[in-house]
Amino acid sequence: MPLVQERDLMAGLVERLAAGRGTPAAGPTGSTTEPVSEPVSDSVAGLTAYAGALWEVLEARRSLRSFDARRVAAAELSTVLARAFTTHRAQWPERPAVDLTVLLAAYRVEALAPGWYEVGPDGAFREVADAPELPDAAGTFDDAPAVLLIGGDLAGAVGRAGHAGYADLLVRGAALAHTCWLTAIGAGFGGCPRGRAEAVATTAFHTLRPGGRHLLSLTLGRPGTAPQPLPVPGPNDAAAPR
Hints:
Mean pLDDT: 78
Strand order of the largest sheet: 5-4-2-6-8-7
Structural class: alpha+beta
Shape: globular
Strand content: 15-25%
Number of helices: 6
Radius of gyration: 20 Å
Low-confidence stretches: 21-52
Distance between the termini: 49 Å
């Protein structure tokens, strides 16, 4: 039996974070952070700031592996990613932005043909020319309609700061994926971070920028209906006929 209420601890953490942070976190009610100063997608104007507590979005954070089969809107994804990138840059103001590269593997995204796209700082998508074919969505990414892939120049990071540069790049890549995940939850999306690097994704990164390596991924989409488990036979159930 716990001696301390977990929510009380979380409330104290929220107060401490809010005291040192001017931008509210994303939440699970279909909204994201305060409007950013740089241009993003036109759909930003239609989103409102989330006014709930941080513990609400953390409680809504779940690994989603069953997605709605319908397409997701490119404009909505663009808005979510622009907000997340802005938050990430504010958290790491002295790090070189060129260290990390973000690709979108678009499987079922409105206004985008299936393929690889580089995601700009403003959330805009630019198709990667001569990129390899997308891997099988069901076998690799839980059949998610969109997959965010984060990569970086490991050799460049090590050349600038040795082993510390390598570790720093991995930490910032993971932090960016988590920021995108929380912001996506606030906009009604769901997903699951995946730490496994894919060779075909590294090829796509290298095609875009020599030296690029795939570090981790984040599946994104709308929640779907999870398959129901098969019933477990009880002791009084008759054996199935052969």
